[in-house]
Design brief:
376 residues, Rossmann fold, Dihydrodipicolinate Reductase, domain 2, 9-stranded mixed sheet, 24% strand
Length: 376
């Protein structure tokens, strides 16, 4: 393990994960030392295209490399928990794309192992570093929203045609894009949740996970607060343009995500004549919060013919420009010796909201308490 202000990073999973290659390479406190890809030809192409010192086709061999301080996991959802646990056991800090796991028990194991080893874990939830969330958080922390009264979020997407583990996935198993911003805004934890399923998906999809619902909608209660939040998820057989949205209602101002992607969002201001209450807002870019080397990343993606993949690896690209902010938070936390945001217990709480919500839906809306290990 390095003992300087430079963190040696390895990226595992080079589909979506490839977008982070140039971000870590541009970070002043990071050194991308290795990547892991099962296909030797793709691995060689990426290493050559980006000048990456080491490449592994074996995850176990990568974890045995003493030069690597931390791994950033971007593999399929079913692999997240197992790969996180072996990385922590091998002495590596872990950043992992969402969700943390697909069972409450695996979330528990990760929280406990992170605490036992003193190693940092961060679930790389994009929405809580998106420009829209950062804008709302500024409004909240400055007092412009007034008293926070209610929050809601939705994530609707047509996943037909996606890889093998997606078909039939329970909507709430992949709910952190909705849950994260609701809890991160006030740094709260959810204490219990109730959820209803609605509609049905095709029988061949429902058979995969034993989940029949086309839509799952849940209410979660924030611990130690008078606030609740609503989240809505759909993945199959529901007509809707892709949308990850957050709506936040305050006594003075409220923010509502646009109904159609790329249209302006709406800010409502109280105590005005009715026609003047809503106004369209352009959410600012928060590149100024990044190290200078990361700021030039803009909205334009790049297709790399050598790597044979599209690399929209830019500050302004997908997920609301969140990617460099995520990498910067993870690296900064390691350099500063602090927990990243979100840390392991918070990541578990955000993930378990969805897992418990699905349990509730299967039980007809029964209230389900979040496990105690997620509340600390």
């Amino acid at each position: 393990m390095s003992t300087t202000s430079i963190v040696n990073i390895a990226i595992v999973g080079l589909g979506f994960g490839a977008e982070f290659i140039p971000i870590y390479q541009a970070h002043p406190n990071a050194r991308l030392v290795a990547v892991c890809q099962r296909d030797p030809a793709k691995l060689a192409a990426l290493r050559q295209a980006f000048g990456i010192p080491k490449g592994y086709t074996s995850y176990a061999e990568l974890l045995a490399d003493p030069e690597i301080d931390a791994v950033h996991i971007n593999t399929p959802i079913p692999d997240h928990a197992a790969q996180t646990l072996v990385a922590l056991a091998a002495g590596k800090h872990v950043a992992c794309t969402v969700p943390m796991a697909t069972t409450v028990e695996d979330c528990r194991k990760i929280v406990e192992l992170s605490a036992a080893t003193g190693l940092r874990y961060m679930m790389m939830e994009t929405v809580v570093y998106s420009r829209e969330f950062l804008y709302v958080k500024d409004l909240y922390e400055s007092g412009e929203l007034g008293k926070l009264q209610f929050m809601q979020a939705s994530h609707q997407q047509d996943m037909d045609g996606w890889p093998h583990y997606w078909p039939g996935l329970p909507p709430m198993w992949y709910a952190t894009h909705c849950v994260g911003p609701m809890l991160a805004l006030t740094n709260a934890r959810a204490e219990h949740v109730s959820c209803y399923g609605s509609g049905t998906i095709r029988p061949e999809l429902a058979a995969a996970y034993g989940s029949p619902f086309a839509v799952e909608s849940a209410h979660l209660k924030l611990r130690g607060s008078d606030l609740s939040a609503r989240i809505v998820r759909s993945l199959f057989d529901t007509a809707r343009q892709y949308r990850e949205s957050i709506d936040v209602y305050g006594s003075r101002k409220s923010f509502e995500w646009s109904l159609i992607e790329h249209e302006p969002h709406i800010l409502h201001t109280a105590k005005r004549p009715e026609p003047e209450i809503p106004s369209r807002v352009t959410v600012p870019d928060y590149a100024h919060r990044l190290p200078e080397g990361l700021r030039p990343y803009t909205t334009e993606g790049v297709y790399d013919t050598a790597a044979n993949m599209h690399l929209s690896f830019t500050q302004g690209s997908g997920h609301g420009g969140s990617h460099p902010h995520l990498a910067h938070e993870f690296v900064s936390a390691l350099v500063e010796g602090r927990d990243p945001r979100p840390n392991a217990p918070a990541s578990a709480n955000w993930t378990c909201v969805g897992l418990c919500a699905h349990q509730s839906a299967l039980a007809g809306g029964q209230r389900v308490d979040l496990p105690e290990f997620t509340l600390g």
